[in-house]
Amino acid sequence: MINTKKIIIVDDHKIVRDGIRAMLLCNKSFSVVGDLASGKELFQQLNSLTPDIVILDIGMPEMNGVEITGKLNREYPAVKVLILSANASEDWIVSAIKAGAVGFLPKECSSGELIKALRHISRGENYYGESIASIIYRSYVNILRDKESPKRTEELTERESDVLKAFSEGLSFKEIADKLCISPRTVESHKINILNKLELKNTIEMVKYAIKNGIIDL
Amino acid sequence: MINTKKIIIVDDHKIVRDGIRAMLLCNKSFSVVGDLASGKELFQQLNSLTPDIVILDIGMPEMNGVEITGKLNREYPAVKVLILSANASEDWIVSAIKAGAVGFLPKECSSGELIKALRHISRGENYYGESIASIIYRSYVNILRDKESPKRTEELTERESDVLKAFSEGLSFKEIADKLCISPRTVESHKINILNKLELKNTIEMVKYAIKNGIIDL
DNA sequence: GATGAAGTAGGTGAAATCCCGTATTTGGTT
DNA sequence: AACCAAATACGGGATTTCACCTACTTCATC
Question: Which pLDDT tens digit goes with each residue over A28-42?
Fold first, then answer.
């Protein structure tokens, strides 16, 4: 094989990294040039490792997969991103695609499918996995039907993120106010905005959203 | 090697299962006779696969690793259990050991450590991993100092579990009352008991507890 | 048959949150 | 310069939840 593609794996669990590494060991088209535990490490080593493809766990503490994908796409547009996700929710798929991922697989996928995805990606194609594809299709149909329904992925402002994070840590209005040095009423305003934007109905759904989207760790 | 140990891997992510499989492929002391996605499948196939060791992910929907361990220990005491956990909290370690796990590793462990653990376990020894060992030591010291502090792992009653589950779904007192056909005040009583038992300070911590312990899925 | 745990239910007052608003300042865009 | 979105802040009343109790019933266990 003339053109071996260089791959970096980013996942906070070493066992997953080793696992993927082991899967690709027998395959001559791909060579794993690094496996890292966080986005921070990735950006530190990106220039020296010069990967073609980055395999990215979406659910990581600190910087989540979507954020990393966005930054990669802005600063290193030649690097392709394949996202791995524990639970393939529509939200995450949409965010990942928006951020520039060219592949998306559930962690339930087989090693065969992983290699298939990598092949497609190295040919410059997209690959989204069968189970993902059906979710994308459904989402697409929804968009066509409702004209404009992709409100779900509306972005939170910086401040709203702070508030969301604080709520998810179990703080009360007053505690959040103190922490962020604003009035409790302002915290309330932010919260209402968050709930409206994300179409959630209460604090608990908000916390679950935050966990799902890697905004806080458990 | 005369005595090859038979291993089953249980994890809800195929990629992790395949990864561990791949890691053990080169090792003649251990052969993976099955990899399964849930406790249910495990108990269906246990009699035909007759494993020596079960590698168990602690964080799974439906039946979590601790429950599976307990059931295994009661019904198949010859089968050794090695727990893998994403986040190695004291609570989980304590629960796992109580339930009868003879090994406990964080998912951040290396493949080398995994094999080391399996070697110890097949010799009939316990193995808890370096990072785990320090947590165990600290917990042990606490128990010695406080005479009796392991209140943390106190069990919830059936009804309390129902209430916890309902709260975690984002229902209010009134909604839970309707759902369980009891008075809102009773729901309140249950909730207070839950918070006290688990030493949590509010609903949000409760929800996070429920997610962490696999009582609800995200 | 006493004891205790689990499940049920309620009282009361305080605290927190929700839900409807309005208003000012700041920073960026056109 | 005009405009808009974001962030900040507040009001008032309704509703919900919290905290700390008491109390009854059932059921198993000793």
Answer: 889 899 999 888 889
